[in-house]
Specification:
The complex is a heteropentamer of chains A (about 650), B (about 350), C (about 130), D (about 150) and E (about 325). Chain A is of the alpha/beta class and about 650 residues long. Chain A has a five-stranded parallel beta sheet with strand order 10-7-6-18-31. Chain B has about 350 residues and is of the alpha+beta class. Chain B folds into two domains: about 1-205, no CATH class; about 215-340, no CATH class. In chain B, a hairpin with a 2-residue loop joins strand 2 (about 20-30) and strand 3. The model of chain B has no long low-confidence stretch (mean pLDDT about 95). Classes of the chains: A alpha/beta (about 650), B alpha+beta (about 350), C mainly alpha (about 130), D alpha/beta (about 150), E alpha/beta (about 325). Chains in contact: A-B, A-C, A-D, A-E, B-D, B-E, D-E.
Chain lengths: ~650, ~350, ~130, ~150, ~325
Amino acid sequence: MQRIGVFICWCGSNIAATVDVKKVAAAALNEPGVVFSADYQYMCSASGQGLVKDAIREKGLTGVVVCSCSPRMHEATFRKAAESCGLNPYMVEIANIREHCSWIHKDVAEGTEKAVILMRAAVAKVNLNQSLVAGKSDVVKRALVIGGGIAGIQTALDIAEAGYEVDIVEKKPTIGGKMAQLDKTFPTLDCSACILTPKMVDAAAHDKIKIYSYSEVESVSGFVGNFTAKIRKKARFVKEDLCTGCGLCTEKCPSRKTPNEFNEGMNTRSAIYIPFAQAVPKYAVIDPAACLHFKTGKCGLCERTCDAKAVDYNQKDETIERKYGAIVVATGYNVIKLDNFGEYGYTENPDVITSLELERIMNAAGPTGGALLRPSDKTHPQKIVFVQCVGSRGQRPCDKPYCSKICCMYTAKHAMLIREKYPDTEVYVFYIDVRTPGKNFEEFYRRAVEQYGVHYVKGQVGKVAENAGKLRVYGSDLLMNEQIVIDADLVVLAAAIEPDESAKKIATMLTTGIDTNNFLTEAHPKLRPVESATAGIFLSGVCQGPKDIPETVSQASAAAVKVIGLLAKDQITCNPCVARSDELLCNGCSSCEKVCPYGAITYIDKEVNDHGKREVRRIASVNEAVCQGCGACTVACPSGAMDLKGFTNKQIMAEVDAICR
Amino acid sequence: MLKIKKSNLDKLYAAISERQILYVPCNVAGKPNFAVWGEGADVDLVSLKTVKSAKEVFFPQCEDIASFRKEGKNISVKSEHKESGDFVVFGVRACDCKSFDILDSVFLADPVDTFYKTKREHGTVITLACSKPEETCFCSAFGIDNAEPEGDIATYFAGEYLYWSPKTEKGLNLTKTLNSLLQTATDKDNDALEKEQKKIKEITGRLPLYVLDLSYWEADDLLEKFNSEKWKALSESCIGCGACTFVCPTCQCYDVRDFDKGHGVQRYRCWDSCMYKDFTMMAHGTPRPTQMQRFRQRFMHKLVYHPSNHEGVFSCVGCGRCVEKCPMHINIVKVIKTFGGDDK
Amino acid sequence: MDLSEQAENIKRISGVDTKKCLRCGKCTASCPNYEDMEYHPHQFVYFIENGYLDRLLKSDAAFRCMTCFACVERCPRDVKPAKLIEAVRLTLVRQKDSNRLKPYDIIENLNADLPQQAIVSAMRKYTK
Amino acid sequence: MSVEHESFKPTIVAFCCNWCSYAGADLAGSGRMQYPANVKIIKVPCSCRVNPTFVLRAFQRGADGVIMCGCHPGDCHYSTGNYYTRRRMTMLFDFLDFLGIERGRTRVEWVSAAEGARFASVMNDFVKNVTELGPNRKITDLRTKPEHKEGE
Amino acid sequence: MQKVAEIAQKRAIQLLNQGVVNRVIGWKKGEFGYDETPAVFTTAAGIEDFRYDVFSAPNLSKYLIDESKKEGKILAFLKPCDTYSFNQLIKEHRVNRDNVYIIGIECGGMADINTIRNRGAAGVTDVADNGQTVIAHTLYGDVTFDKNEVLLEKCQACKGKKHVIFDELIVVNPQDDEPKNRFAGVEAIENMTPEERFAFWREQLSKCIRCNACRNVCPACSCLQCVFDNPRSGVASKASPDTFEEQLYHIIRAFHVAGRCTDCGECSRVCPQDIPLHLLNRKFIKDMNAFYGEYKAGEDSETRPPLVNFSKDDAEPSVISDKGGDK
């Protein structure tokens, strides 16, 4: 039997005006287990808490009920107070007689009656409370960042700056991601590389950051504070410790026909290559699919050329295992494939390009050295048509239902840059809506229209067809209510962006949520935007949803803060109100496992002793560090083997009983 | 011997009900069970067997025995025992009537079950001869005459009439109150009745279970029976439900349970079944952890333990309800035959 | 049936949810018979959605649609303007209880640029 | 409505999830939004913690109405909890209807932490409906009634 | 049917003799020709008593929970509906598939002795199956019935003649696989007024004697300890001193098996009071089909049951009141 103390707070007149606190205190003494009751003006004050503490010590209380404001306000306060004098904090329950009673009722009799009932329910619950001890688990003081784009780099830098180790795993040979491919950034028009590459160098140089480029995460196990990841380092065929990144090999390489990924395939690279001049880490890598040595066994020119003796044709993939306390997913995005958009003729016409391709064309390090030349005949285009919302906001199978968010702004940027550099060029932008919610965004767009004379046409393009060396663009001008036809030299498609294909695999690996568009789901859309629903897994950048660079960077830093907050702890205190499986009742049906959003339940074969009968049974086992205590499993379990500590079936039923009594 | 026209039975029920409660087999949702008679009740004296036996009238499935009342922090206890009012149970078959003797031997032996006793004292049993015995009946094996049932009053259907024969003082007292409805039977009636009884006997003689050799069970070799290998195969298909025990007229085990009403506690007893895993559950667990052990308990009790404690009387009246109701068709007949029959 | 009921009816028989329209105009941009039509596919959607059905019913635009389905094919929101136009056409045909196209008029209307398929489907549709 | 209904004050049990609805109820309180005192809230971590047994238990013990409140679908603190609630309670409540228990005695509402006013109006509406239905006689345990005294 | 039984018997002996299995679970003859009992046969000689006819209704799947954990392989004869139960048990990891050799056995529908009795045949001492008709030999003469009229409820609402899991099949006369409308009974109750529905169920459930036969026979009720037997669950009870307890027991049981119930109909078959319990389970099946898409528990051993699954655009619980009727 418990020895329960009931403490009724007046909250000044907030409670006392509508609830006869003395009456509640007197009624409490009639409840089973209650040995003491008291009322006080401000129970949360130091002296109010003192009252509670004294009673715990003097009356030997084993449970405490505080009838006061919402537990969301002061549950923690009173639990702490109880703990300070040796009572398990989970033996304290709050009856909310302010927000749920005194504030919403005017009649004192009514308010008092309800307060008594709420008190009773809390007492009934405490009678069944058990001391709960929060589990603790050690935190590995190292974070893993999956993806080395601007999101991953920023997160890693921020974590490293706080003094924790970070590993970046990037599947490409260099970090930098999409931002490295961009020419200029909106709305400031500063050079993308100029702001990104210093960060890349910082990351590489940071003693707390380790970059695993050309590597992929194969599997992750464990839980918050204690993950184990297997990372596969793909064979580069170049020894990283020896390669100086001089690039001589890439010049000598006789196989030069491979489309250059970095330039979106608009020019070619050698079989041994360095993705771009500012690559980090700057090591050459051999593409075995293109390399003559791998194809024919001959050649070996690079090996001979390399003074550092870095080339190693026999290198194998290597898998390493590392422990982490936290994981940040920053897998980024890709431009969607345009194979199914026949109307724009992207696959047939070299002069129909994506915006990302245009970025490369405009870039000084790009395939044309920065000159705006159309791909087919390398002439300067006189008329350029930009098409917005290609594959975004649609409902066809090839479309994405969401807005890709960045296209309006980068198209304005492109249009503006072209008009500035080549004032003789006519630029048309077909748009459905122009969306510019961002600092200085609308001003930027207006400048494109007003200052640079870009023709914005409200309407969509229906068809692009090759016509006498030009591209005939059929579009509609809805404001004119006309179909217009433009013979353009170049058509630029603002193709939708989608999460990188690795996101889905990684989400499954990390048991974190993913939405129908394969964007990873945040724990709460408003309040926990950079956390995933799985503890210890954080989201950074476009893997969570379309974002521009400033948003990505701020989210990256936010994710870093969450990671730092986690890694700063030596141990994590787990929520003790977690599910618990009664191994004698569990029949191994797996229903609970199916509803657990965190993958906290696993099934194990265990020998149990059922009243002397020993047998191996398949039973559910809850990882308390992973369980967040939602209770979904408890209802899925037909045998009642699964219960939730702190909110057990019997406790809740006791509350129900007390209320309905 | 008295008689009443079948078509006047409703009047008879009403007349009995005027003075005391009348239990009679009634159809509710398509199933006959003993129920308190009231105007418009669907009385069913045709169906041979009620689902639950007549024992329910004296030993209800649930019965309050005490209550605890909470006032502040004080608890007061009150017995729920009260004297029963007079009542009549009508339409009891010979086998069910015999089962009362078996229940008596348990409940009325020291210590006396006062709840049961008061009902037995105040209850008048009107039996009814079985006009149409069925294949599952084997009352004859226990020396029960289904054509000539016992009870305070025995009744018989023949032709247009129900014949009425008071057998005890209780029976005579009740009969007196019904004089206006009952006529005296003539010689012709007696002939008709005799003919009817003869017919019943003839059919009974043809029942497939008419001959059931119980001699094996009379032998005093408890341990041999207990340790027999045959239990395993017999019990294999038992699903451990309590259908047999709850329809059985002689099963008398009950559990005492408490129900928290919120403002007090109700202590009640309710039928229990030795087929259940938690039967006689104790702190260390159940004494009979396997279904075979529980199965064996039931039949050892009926055929060995009870007779050895009660002058050789088996705790079975051959009503055949278990034969009919077992979902898997396992029953006492199979047990009797397996041990004492051809398989031996 | 008043106009709004008629508009509802057109939506019902066509199965088109005009509210899904994004107002991008891609249907009209795609329309190969744009020149010939007084009202264009996007206007069909817009007019029916917003209560200007009378204009469509007074016009012969519905009969100018070649039902090539380019608009249906291209529409990013799967609105299916051609189905809506078809429903308007049906409404008109039923209303007037007469065929819009007489077989002997077809020759006259034949246009060398018209795709063969469109002629055949027009025959099938409008001469019933 | 009969006289009985006018004086009848139903007992209502409201299960509220800690993250949205309980906070919504707090907000209703902070905003001094009135709703009947008959509503008694039980806090659960998530609406998916509510076992059908609890709902039946409430009716057994004399509740006249049971309402479940959770985060709006998609906003669950535990990401998926209320999706399960939605299925379970749809099934349970339709089943109770199948047994002839009045539909109006059960309800599921999604109330976010910001919807204090909605919480109050939902409760007002629910209490009104249950009051109109009158006392719960169909799915309750007579033994728990105050009038069920010893020996009766 | 007789031919099927003969083949089955021969095959069982063969498999025993070949050592493929060391036990056989099937049905054994009873006292009256209508009371077949599930039985485990261990010897070829014992299989003499094997019976398979219109009274081989008991679903053997649940026995396999225990049997499949024993040493050696067991041969099980499963009727089409029994195979659903078995699949569902695989899904719930309750049986060891590797230890069971399944012969899917043809089923033309099982007869119900209670219906035969209710239709006026008292004192049935034997029953003969003549294909289209069954003849009840009784103490009071023979009574002939059209077989379709005396089928068990579960067979009248047969969900199909396809075996969903088996190692081999014994099907001599392929049966019409036209699934019947299982939901007519549920619909009839849905169409009642709430008061009628309530009265119907109150009367039906008032008969319940809590013998637990429905639960114990149910292949979905495979908990090691039922909440109603567990004193620590807070809802344990043995009998129903109040009508509420009857409701609670049957509601919770139906809810616990919802999405897992294969509609094998055993609950209704075994109820000594003939409570139409299948209607409770079928109501859930019907609702789940309507709200969450067609789902047949036990059709395979992988798909997630509807109640441990969800979709983001599921119907809101308000659909119940939107369906019409009172609020």
